[in-house]
Each structure stands twice: as C-alpha cells, then as structure tokens.
Structure to design on (665 residues):
DNA sequence: GAGTTTGAAACT
DNA sequence: CAGTTTCAAACTC
C-alpha cells in the first residue's frame, strides 16, 4: 500500500480519488494501525460529482441489499428510514453489511466516494479506530473495539493538518456500542464532518450518523445545528475532540434526527448569535430562539427544541416527548429543566414555517421573534401566528384566552386537524422557493425572487403588494399569476400579466431590477439562508423565505427519492392539483418544455415542494392560476417559475398525471 | 399606545 | 363558489 504522505487536507475531501484517499493521513493512520492492508477498490471511471454529494439519497426503505450496493456502509444511512432506528445496522449485522457492500461496490459503480468508502470500509474491518485528536492507542490496538467510529466530514474546509481535525471544523462523536457484539471500529468518511459517536445507544448513534450522512441533509442540519456544534466545540474544545459523548452526541443527533422527523427549528434559531454560543446546547434547545439572538432582546417566542421539529412540517407527528428526550440528551443529561415556553405541536406541518419565516426574517434582522396578540381567536385559528406556526404560545404572547398551550394540547390538535381537514395545506408554508434558486444559488438567476412564489398568491387590493399585508411581499417573493392582487407593485416581482409566459418575455428586464431590489431586502435574510444553503457561500441574496428549509430538502427528495415528501404531503394528498395547473398551463400557451436538463434537477425539488405543499391545496381560487406542480422526476414536465435571462423562465407545461411523490424518482 | 387599514381566514 | 364577516397583523399618527 502506498501511502505517500499527502496533503492532509485532501483526505476526505469530496472528490478525492482513491489514491488521494489512500494518501490521506487518516488512511495512513489506519493502515498503520491495522495489520491488514486495505483493499484497494477498483478504480472507477466515475468521478465524484458534486451533485451526488449534495444529494443524499435518503430512501426510506430499510437497508437492504440494494442499498448497500449503492452506498455502502454508512451510506446506508441514507437509505435507511430515518424515522426508524438503524436497528438493522446495529451490531454485527452492521458489520456484515459493510463487508458485503464493499464487495458489491467493487462490482458496481464505484465512484470516488465509493472508492473511498470502500477502502475505508476495508480498513474499517480492521481493528482500527480512528481518532482525530483524542485518539487513544488503545483503540488501535484492539482488533475489535466496541467503539465505532464514524467519520463524517462536515465542513468542507477540513484539512486540518493539526492532529487531524480541528475542533472547529470537526466534531467528533464517539459512539460506543455497548450492547451489540463488539464491532470493529469503522471509519466512515462521508462528506464533511467527522463524527465520532459514542453513545450508549447504538441505534441512536446510528441514526445520527445516518442522518448526518446525507450530505444535503447535512447542510440542512448544519444550518440548523451544526453551527451550534461548532460553537460548542469552539467554546469547549474538549468536547469536540474528546470522548465527551453526551454533549457531542446529543447535538448531532438532535439536529439531524429532528430534521428527519421533519423537525426544524425556527429560523431565528438558526442564526448564530454571539450570545448563543455561550449558552449550552441544552440551553439552546430549551431556550427560545430569541434568546439566542439576544438575551437582552425582548424575547420572542422562545422556541423550545421541539419547535425545531415543528419545522419539519412533516406529517409525521412530532412528539414533544421525543423532543424533550432528545433535548435532554443533548443537554448532556441535563433534564429539561425549564418547561419550554413555546412548544411545538405534536404534529406540525410545514405550514408553520410561514410564521417562522416571518419571525426569522424579522428576527434575522434583529427583530426579535414575535408573539401573537390574539384576542378572540383563542389562538386556535390561523389568525394566530403562533398557532399557524405550529408552536404553542408562550409567555410573551399577549393573547387572551389562549388555548394554544400544552395544557390544551388536545384542543389544539383537534383544532388543527379540523383546519387541516378543511385545508390540508393550511399549515404548509405559504411561500415556496423553487429548487432552482437553491440549486443555482450561484447563478444570478437564483437570486431572482421569482424563484420563490407564494403558494396561493395574494389578494391585495390596496396595498399594491408593497406592504406586509401582502403575503407575497412579506414572504420576500414576487407575485405570480397565482395572485389576484390589484395594482401589484411587489418589489420582489410583480405579477406581470396574467400569464407566466408574459413574464418570460418581460422578465429579463424586470428581473434585473427585481434582483437588485431583492438583493437588498434579502440581504437581511441571508443569514438564515446560509444555514441551509451550502455553506459554500453561494448564497445569493435571494429573497427567500424561510421556507427554504423545505426547499433544501427537496434536493434529496428528488434525487434520493426521499420520502421526506411524505412529511410535507402528509395529509392525504389527493390529487396534486393538477387539474388546475394543467389546464391553466396548457391553456396558457405553453411552451413546450424548455426545461433544460439543469432544470430538471433543480426543478425537482421545487416540484416536490410544490407538490407537497400545493398538491393538496384546495385553496386555489379559480381565478388565480397557479403554477401547477411540476412533475417529479420527469424532467420533461414541470413548471418553472424561476427566470433567467435566457431560457429558463417560467415554463408551463401541461402535466399529465402527477406521479406520486413516493415514486418520484 | 391607540386607532386605522388591510387582507387572510373563517363563515354563510 | 361567491360574498360577507371576523380577526389580528401591519401600519399610521
């Protein structure tokens, strides 16, 4: 085995060719430790594509052979149903799987990643444990340790020459398998973050891993929590490197895990506040987001950890219990001492995002989270921002006769159901950002507000869509054909003509203008975006609403086929409003599809989003035409709102049948 | 902080 | 489905 010392930074770097991997210090280290030589994976012609990276293939199926093939080993995580504990992966089985996957992989497509993984896996079979900083020789010695190391690279910027991992860039979690058969330590390198889990609970640990592994998700998570982790590490370097399991494990788990569940924290939470760092994780979780922002600030609605989940918007019910539990875990045993002021409803939908969005936007800018001020609705109607956001009212709320409290959980849920029965998407985010923007964040086009749209469109009569009365404006998105507004002057994008097509023609002109405007406006919002988007910085100043979370997920969904859509769709999605759209679109002159290939991928997410959120909407008024949810998978069909100077603009295509999200491939 | 305006949500 | 009412946020002063 040749392991010429190489640049440490390259080790797990994304597209590392196999050789690089071997060259990586880590690899070397492992090699040294183990008597066994790593098997070299078959070289592949395939290169590691960035796309693959971003797309975590989370498939909710439990790991099975296929899964293994594709992703090996830890990749399996991606395929594993998040909701489920990785039981299958645990213990010996896990080990076996790894081996198998490695073999299969050889036969199959081997991308660089695969190669890396393969090599790693192989090595993993060896009794080595990789530790970055705190590695103890002990581990290396023992052939099989109970500790399993999982490495996931989080931050691209890795390359820590020092001791392997810098506390900042790397988080380590050590998972200790106590119960299952001892497993040899494995090194898993997945994208960016190095995680070593050591936790009493295997399943959990794995979950975390799994979750984390999906790169896209990772971002997502990262946005949400990774920052925390980083902070934590910074604050307490020891945590990062050492064995302190709890704290470490906790965060990741939670964040990731929660996310899967659909849990998201409010945007405001996402923002790292200087003050926040100081706080413990536990605090963070327990404390409201607002707290993070500024302890001094008027508290806003404090979001408890649960809230994070709330964002999930998943149909899957979120149990506060879980949240609590997780929280406590995260907090390192710290029980949730404080009763969360704002709790997320057990079941939350993405819908809540809206409010959150607002909050975040505002909050992001420095405004603290807001509280409701309901007098008559008892906070059980969508009038109530808290309720609409899927969170319980908290002390700071000025509501009267509030029933939106944990105490009245049943009532809240019942009401919620009722509302959802009326409008399944009532709690879904109102603003949908197209995947395009996200995907293309780098592009100018992505900056276009047009990329995001209000699901139902506004109905402004007097505000000219220039005030927050306008939901489109409020959401930082331009008006679209879906809007029935009058005298639209939405700075984020006016509703041009009745047809999107028209927009195409015009947009080029307007777009620039919009973008400029938007850029400013959004500038404030960017922070939140960053979280979700690639840390890579492409973050354009798109006026995106907080919903981005959703969007972010989308990529997975589409590519990976993640069922997360399920989250969104939740309620019985009956027909995805295709009829409307179809008709509308087709009628509206549709241009055959112009969708560029690029669009496809990008579109997918959007589609998912739309479909998820929009699909079920009944709330479409006949008058307004809305963009129909594009087809998933099929690159062919889809509507694209985003507009580019050239080709892509709004393309409306009649869409045949709407494929089920699940199917979306 | 009180009052007005506005448009979504809810109701009929 | 359209029209009306209710509601609370957004806005103004």
């Amino acid at each position: 085995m040749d392991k010429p010392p190489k640049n440490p930074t390259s080790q797990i770097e994304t597209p590392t060719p196999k050789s690089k991997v071997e060259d990586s210090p880590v690899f070397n280290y492992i090699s040294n430790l183990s008597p066994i030589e790593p098997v070299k994976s078959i070289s592949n012609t395939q290169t590691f594509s960035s796309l693959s990276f971003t797309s975590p293939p989370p498939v909710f199926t439990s790991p099975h052979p296929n899964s293994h093939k594709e992703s090996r080993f830890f990749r399996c995580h991606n395929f594993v149903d998040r909701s489920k504990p990785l039981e299958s992966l645990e213990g010996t089985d896990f080990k076996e799987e790894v081996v198998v996957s490695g073999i299969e992989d050889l036969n199959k497509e081997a991308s660089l990643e695969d190669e890396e993984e393969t090599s790693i896996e192989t090595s993993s079979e060896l009794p080595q444990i990789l530790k970055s900083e705190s590695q103890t020789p002990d581990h290396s010695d023992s052939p099989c340790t109970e500790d399993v190391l999982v490495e996931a690279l989080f931050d691209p910027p890795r390359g820590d020459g020092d001791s392997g991992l810098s506390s900042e860039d790397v988080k380590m979690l050590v998972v200790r398998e106590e119960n299952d058969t001892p497993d040899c330590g494995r090194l898993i390198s997945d994208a960016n973050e190095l995680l070593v889990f050591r936790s009493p609970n295997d399943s959990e640990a794995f979950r975390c891993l799994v979750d984390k592994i999906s790169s896209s998700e990772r971002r997502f998570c990262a946005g949400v929590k990774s920052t925390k982790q980083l902070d934590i590490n910074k604050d307490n370097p020891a945590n990062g490197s050492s064995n302190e399991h709890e704290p470490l494990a906790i965060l990741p788990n939670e964040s990731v895990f929660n996310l899967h569940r659909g849990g998201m924290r409010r945007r405001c939470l996402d923002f790292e506040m200087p003050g926040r760092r100081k706080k413990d994780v536990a605090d963070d979780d327990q404390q409201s987001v607002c707290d993070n922002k500024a302890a001094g600030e008027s508290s806003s609605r404090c979001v408890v950890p649960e809230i994070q989940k709330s964002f999930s918007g998943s149909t899957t019910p979120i149990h506060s219990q879980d949240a609590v539990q997780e929280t406590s875990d995260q907090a390192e045993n710290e029980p949730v001492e404080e009763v969360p002021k704002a709790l997320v409803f057990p079941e939350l939908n993405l819908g809540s995002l809206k409010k959150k969005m607002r909050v975040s936007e505002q909050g992001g800018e420095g405004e603290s989270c807001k509280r409701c001020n309901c007098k008559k609705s008892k906070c059980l109607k969508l009038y109530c921002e808290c309720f609409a956001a899927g969170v319980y009212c908290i002390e700071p709320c000025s509501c009267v006769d509030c029933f939106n409290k944990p105490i009245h959980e049943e009532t809240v849920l019942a009401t919620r159901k009722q509302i959802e029965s009326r409008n399944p998407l009532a709690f879904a985010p109102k603003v949908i950002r197209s995947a395009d923007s996200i995907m293309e964040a780098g592009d100018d086009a992505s900056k276009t507000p047009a990329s995001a749209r209000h699901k139902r469109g506004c109905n402004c009569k007097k505000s000219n869509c220039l005030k927050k009365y306008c939901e489109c404006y409020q959401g930082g998105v331009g008006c679209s054909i879906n809007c029935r507004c009058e005298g639209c002057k939405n700075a984020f994008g006016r509703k041009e003509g009745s047809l999107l097509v028209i927009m195409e023609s015009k947009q080029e002109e307007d777009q620039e203008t919009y973008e400029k405007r938007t850029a400013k406006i959004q500038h404030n919002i960017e922070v939140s975006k960053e979280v979700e988007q690639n840390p890579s910085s492409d973050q354009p100043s798109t006026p995106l609403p907080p919903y981005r979370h959703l969007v972010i997920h989308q990529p997975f969904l589409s590519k990976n086929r993640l069922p997360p859509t399920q989250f969104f769709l939740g309620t019985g999605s009956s027909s995805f409003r295709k009829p409307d759209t179809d008709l509308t679109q087709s009628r509206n002159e549709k241009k055959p599809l112009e969708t560029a290939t690029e669009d496809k991928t990008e579109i997918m997410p959007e589609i998912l989003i739309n479909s998820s959120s929009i699909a079920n909407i009944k709330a479409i008024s006949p008058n307004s035409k809305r963009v129909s949810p594009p087809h998933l998978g099929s690159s062919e069909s889809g509507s694209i709102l985003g507009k580019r100077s050239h080709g892509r603009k709004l393309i409306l295509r009649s869409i045949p049948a709407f494929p089920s999200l699940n199917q979306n491939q």
